[in-house]
Write a structure and sequence with these properties.
Blueprint lengths: L1 H14 L3 H13 L4 H20 L5 H23 L11 E6 L7 H12 L3 E4 L6 H11 L3 E5 L5 H14 L7 E5 L5 H7 L3 E3 L2 H12 L2
Parallel strand pairs: 1-2, 1-3, 3-4, 4-5
Length: 216
């Protein structure tokens, strides 16, 4: 029960923007032998609450930025522990291009996916937030990824995802590549709307898709 209480406290500290407390809790859990992937999952849960509060107008851009900073700090503590785990990847499996589509400023989920792909042996190029379709097209030409990940939390992002997929197709860059989408409200209906190949409900689902598509 004590462990569950600590987990609840970490999620609450993240959701309530108590940065020092959240980082200290995460550090204590990691030093105490808690699976670093579990700590990152708790971060995702906390950031999901932050995202929902932003949607409701309870939080604003400064809270999103602080949330990203907390995640980055905890990720820096967790990553070495994951990389050192037995069977960790020693080579690059393939290239993945990822970004939050135009009109959406959420990057917490995208950052977790980028982080998890990185530690699982993929070479990832992160375009950031509010990325126009043309920027994705240019980056595909330059980076030559096997997989493209489109992220978006807001419902308005769904049309931007569809437009980005359309721009990639119009540029003749979709053949031989897979496109996945992800975000707080993404489901099969949204995947159909955007014409993506698949959607990932969480970071590990995104990793599994990339492993399957690239043949790892």
């Amino acid at each position: 029960m004590q462990e569950r209480e600590r987990e609840r406290e970490l999620v609450e500290a993240l959701a309530e923007m108590r940065e020092e407390e959240a980082v200290a809790l995460a550090r204590a859990m990691l030093e105490g032998g808690v699976d670093p992937l579990r700590v990152l999952e708790l971060c995702r849960e906390g950031m999901e609450i932050v995202g929902k509060r932003f949607e409701k107008g309870e939080y604003f851009l400064p809270e999103l930025i602080l949330g990203g900073e907390m995640l980055e700090a905890i990720g820096a503590l967790a990553k070495p522990l994951i990389v050192q785990a037995p069977g960790g990847p020693a080579k690059t499996h393939g290239r993945v291009l990822i970004g939050t589509v135009q009109g959406d400023l959420h990057d917490i989920g995208k950052n977790i996916v980028t982080f998890m792909l990185d530690i699982n042996g993929f070479e990832v190029k992160d375009l950031g937030i509010d990325v126009p379709a043309a920027t994705f097209v240019d980056a595909i030409r330059d980076f030559q990824p096997a997989v493209i990940g489109l992220s978006g939390f807001l419902t308005l992002a769904f049309d931007a995802m569809r437009d980005t997929v359309g721009a990639i197709e119009s540029a003749g860059l979709r053949d031989g590549r897979k496109i996945m989408i992800g975000g707080g409200q993404v489901d099969e209906a949204v995947r159909t709307h955007t014409r993506a190949d698949a959607f990932g409900g969480n970071a590990m689902a995104a990793v599994a898709l990339c492993r399957e598509w690239i043949g790892v």
